[in-house]
Amino acid sequence: MTQLHALKQKTHSINTEIYALYLAYRDGRVAWYVRVLLALTIGYAISPVDLVPDMTAVFGYIDDVVMAAAGLRISYKLLLKAVRQEARLQAYEEMGASTRASAVAVKVVGYAWLLLATLLLVFGYKLLHLHML
């Protein structure tokens, strides 16, 4: 049971660090190229769409880990130390207080992907039927 508890704490810590990077992204002192890298990294980390599908043995999960870890590491190094510390402190305060906001965020991302998939299906359907006439 202690290993499970340690794993949960580590997972919470990683989630809080990712949220701290999001908070740093919103800070005005962060350069534009760091913002772009953070947006791409965080988007890839929470997105259900992957470069290599998770169904592919081993490589499906390795690409997620490598892409997210590399992007987060580079972003972390490019951030100012003061911005990192302030964002981390705010993230630990907010993540300890609220879990409803994270549930809402997951729903928003899920609905956005569902909307995109629906639009692509409708577009593909119309494209197929236009060529059949």
From TrEMBL:
Q: According to its record, how does it sit in the membrane?
A: Multi-pass membrane protein
Positions of the DUF1232 domain: 35-69
Which residues are listed as membrane-spanning? 30-46, 58-80, 101-125
Upper classification of the organism: Bacteria, Pseudomonadati, Bacteroidota, Cytophagia, Cytophagales
What is the protein's name according to its record?
Answer: DUF1232 domain-containing protein
Locations listed in the record: Endomembrane system
Coiled coil spans: none
The alphabetized UniProt keywords are:
Membrane, Transmembrane, Transmembrane helix
**Where is it mostly found?**
membrane
Query: Which InterPro entries would you find in this protein's record?
Result: DUF1232 (IPR010652)
Source organism per UniProt: Pontibacter saemangeumensis
